[in-house]
User: Fold this.
Amino acid sequence: MSMVRSVRASAPGKVNIALRVGGVRSDGFHPLDTIFEALDLRDDVEARLADELSMSIRGLGEDLPVDESNLVIRAAQLLKERYGSRTGLDIAPEDLGAQLTVTKRIPVAGGMAGGSADAAATLVALNELWMLGLSGAELHECAAELGSDVPFSLLGGLARGTSRGEELQSLSSNQTHGWVMLINPHGLSTPAVFREFDALGLGHGQVPDTAAVTDVLAGPTTGSEHRALLGSVLANDLEEPARSLRSDVATIIDTIRAHIAAGVLGAHAVMLSGSGPTIAVLAEPTNLDSLSGRLGKLFPELTPVVATGPVRGTHLVR
Assistant:
């Protein structure tokens, strides 16, 4: 068998079309019912055979750590330790190594699962590079250990996520959704948002479901009618705690909602993306550049990023 010297994998960013949250569980996690959509902002990971594991970053996030605190290195170590003995290469499992080069286009700390995308791309690239022959189920199991969003980064498209978000059910839709993601330079801690969620007494009993969104996605409406209907059912239970912690986030969302209600912005809806502080604005795909420009003038402190979905999940780039 010929030895593959380098491979490249590409993974998508995401937006949560719906994010419903229940009361904290005994293990400290909150049960979720969420709808993921993969977006056409993608990170790539190129993997080359090497004597040890190392990584570098190009594009966005060049100042991010490249040690074991990075999900890329953790994903590589997990594969090596658990499945290195299955390599088809003429290399001892303990000697498997790779130089991993991450090309980042997904905004850093933007609530779009860029780190999870990098981990997913690493799993797919090293599975090929090291000739491990892992099944989709085995890759999913590794992804779930690395983080709640990593399994969806592998899957892509549209999916309903339950438990911590790692239990996925694919959803079908032939409709395209346009988004302007407003990236805030000042981060917002996800654990802090969940703590505020609890402090505000918002989690009671079972997690609310996402039936209203899944019904729209599976329904007969098409085009702008579909997107307008989808905008009417978007929901994020973490918006209230994020607003409580950050008055600027509340002001931005309220301003955009007022503009949409007045019919002067050309968008369908606005919502917090994930746990924030990124804000997602749903619009017609043909209106994204214009809307991005208008939002950039309204909020010069934010960075508007245009994206569409759904798109395919993590895959090898030939």
User: Anything to note?
Assistant: The chain has a mean pLDDT of 94. DSSP finds ten helices and twelve strands in the chain.
